[in-house]
């Protein structure tokens, strides 16, 4: 076991530090330039597109807002708390600055991959939309085998590795309250409850996942942000010192160039990129599920999700931790103990309850969001109801054992599998990015005419065949007049034939 942990740890380090970080930076910078910095130009539209109603009804169709919440649920996990603490403890406070920088650059990659997922999404038997890198690899590149490799790596990463780890983090958050936690029987009780609640959601289908995340994500985010805001306001005099600490560390020569692999820049970039997952190929699976009139709309919504994750949630965690830094010496604390010490130092024992709630909510929402990604990719490999039932049961087992175990090897394996899918996705979106640029130009042209953008695949010259974008604007307008239910039936009956 020690051998395999050591080996996978070395592979993980090389893959992320010397390959993936630079690939994601190059891709993000390239997409930022080619889209004329869409992440800033259309910042207002990122919010307006969320109010759009579903354009096609169906048992499992989800809205633009629900798709955003599913992706945000997966992005925003315990890493936004403990991960930020680790970045600060190992890289220095300046890591926060480089996290901000990479969220701004990576947002362009998020736009491109999510727009591509919308263009080549497919419609399922229950009216749900599915899509993601595996789907656009098969349809746009004609390489199903590569799509299957991507799908397998994502399933192993999210359904087994990351969900086991999120369940472990959720259960271990109660160690503070229970003496002799490991032998108390409490982990078994927590594991059972988490598994039951997970089963209730995932066996309810895509729509139930969308509804749950639409509720739990805003609640958990607002609660955590509210706590961070109160903490900041009550320590307002220390805020200038916090920002001074961040910028002094971010541009310190020794911090930047002293052992580059572990420098403040690399650690900040890694934590930022792998917290918001921009360009990694995971969020497009949620983006494809949205029923919208134009692919660029969900691309913009997913760009907003990157900002929510890094610029908002991670910044809140950083503020809580760095207020502790400027008021005392944290010593050798790292990860969750550092967060708990920071909270206890600021508000006393009561703050521990808020942090525990945040960990539980963040971990559970990530379990549901991660499952959603895995299910979409399983259906890409083979869409079979019996296989799906077995898969859902296996996912529940992974959650149960994750909550009662420690997963050092699983963590490394999950990172490696995610690295494989990320490498595949980056090269693919660099090849297919021109179609996302074309969709953005089409969106911009219609906006300039004062129209609500509607996408028709036939308007994009040379675009590889799509399944869901043949309905012209005139038909969509007519559908709104004849009524949603009647229109939905007509579209559902003839969608693929068109």
From TrEMBL:
Pfam families: Na_Ala_symp. The chain crosses the membrane at residues 15-33, 145-165, 185-203, 215-236, 242-267, 306-326, 352-374, 386-410, 416-440. One of its GO terms (cellular component) is plasma membrane. PROSITE patterns: NA_ALANINE_SYMP. The keyword Disulfide bond does not apply. The keyword Transmembrane helix applies. Keywords: Cell membrane, Membrane, Symport, Transmembrane, Transmembrane helix, Transport. One of its GO terms (molecular function) is amino acid:sodium symporter activity. It is found in: Cell membrane. It is a multi-pass membrane protein. Its main location: membrane. Belongs to the alanine or glycine:cation symporter (AGCS) (TC 2.A.25) family. NCBIfam families: agcS. This is Amino acid carrier protein. The lineage of its organism: Bacteria, Bacillati, Actinomycetota, Coriobacteriia, Eggerthellales.
């Amino acid at each position: 076991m020690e051998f395999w942990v050591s080996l996978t740890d070395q592979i993980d380090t090389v893959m992320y530090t010397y390959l993936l970080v630079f690939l994601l930076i190059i891709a993000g910078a390239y997409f930022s330039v080619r889209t004329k910095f869409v992440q800033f130009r259309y910042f207002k539209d990122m919010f307006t597109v969320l109010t759009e109603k579903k354009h096609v009804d169906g048992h499992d169709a989800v809205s633009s807002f629900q798709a955003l919440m599913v992706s945000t649920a997966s992005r925003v996990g315990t890493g936004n708390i403990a991960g930020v603490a680790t970045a600060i403890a190992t890289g220095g406070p300046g890591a926060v600055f480089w996290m901000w920088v990479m969220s701004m650059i990576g947002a362009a990659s998020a736009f491109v991959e999510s727009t591509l997922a919308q263009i080549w999404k497919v419609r399922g038997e229950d009216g749900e939309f599915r899509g993601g890198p595996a789907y656009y690899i098969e349809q746009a590149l004609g390489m199903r085998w590569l799509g299957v490799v991507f799908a397998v790596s994502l399933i192993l990463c999210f359904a087994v590795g990351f969900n086991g780890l999120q369940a472990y983090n959720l259960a271990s958050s109660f160690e503070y309250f229970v003496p002799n936690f490991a032998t108390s029987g409490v982990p078994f009780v927590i594991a059972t409850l988490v598994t039951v609640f997970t089963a209730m959601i995932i066996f309810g289908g895509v729509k139930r996942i969308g509804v749950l995340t639409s509720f739990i994500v805003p609640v958990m985010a607002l609660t955590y942000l509210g706590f961070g805001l109160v903490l900041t306001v009550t320590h307002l005099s220390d805020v200038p010192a916090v920002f001074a600490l961040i910028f002094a560390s971010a541009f310190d020569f020794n911090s930047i160039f002293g052992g580059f692999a572990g420098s403040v820049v690399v650690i900040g970039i890694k934590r930022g990129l792998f917290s918001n997952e921009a360009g990694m190929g995971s969020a497009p699976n949620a983006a494809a599920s949205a029923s919208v009139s134009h692919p660029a709309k969900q691309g913009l919504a997913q760009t907003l999700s990157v900002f929510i994750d890094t610029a908002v949630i991670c910044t809140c965690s950083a503020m809580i931790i760095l207020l502790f830094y400027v008021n005392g010496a944290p010593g050798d604390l790292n990860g969750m103990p550092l967060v708990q010490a920071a909270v206890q130092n600021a508000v006393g024992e009561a703050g521990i309850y808020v942090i525990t709630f945040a960990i539980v909510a963040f971990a559970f929402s990530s379990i549901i969001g991660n499952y959603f990604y895995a299910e979409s990719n399983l259906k890409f490999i083979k869409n079979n109801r019996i296989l799906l039932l077995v898969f859902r049961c296996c996912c529940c087992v992974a959650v149960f054992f994750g909550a009662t175990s420690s997963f050092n090897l699983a963590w490394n394996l999950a990172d490696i599998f995610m690295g494989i899918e990320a490498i595949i996705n980056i090269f693919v979106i660099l090849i297919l990015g021109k179609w996302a640029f074309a969709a953005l130009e089409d969106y911009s042209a219609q906006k300039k005419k004062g129209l609500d953008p509607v996408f028709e695949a036939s308007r994009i010259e040379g675009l590889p065949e799509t399944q869901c974008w043949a309905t012209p604007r005139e038909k969509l307008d007519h559908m709104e007049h004849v009524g949603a239910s009647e229109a939905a039936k007509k579209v559902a009956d003839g969608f693929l034939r068109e």
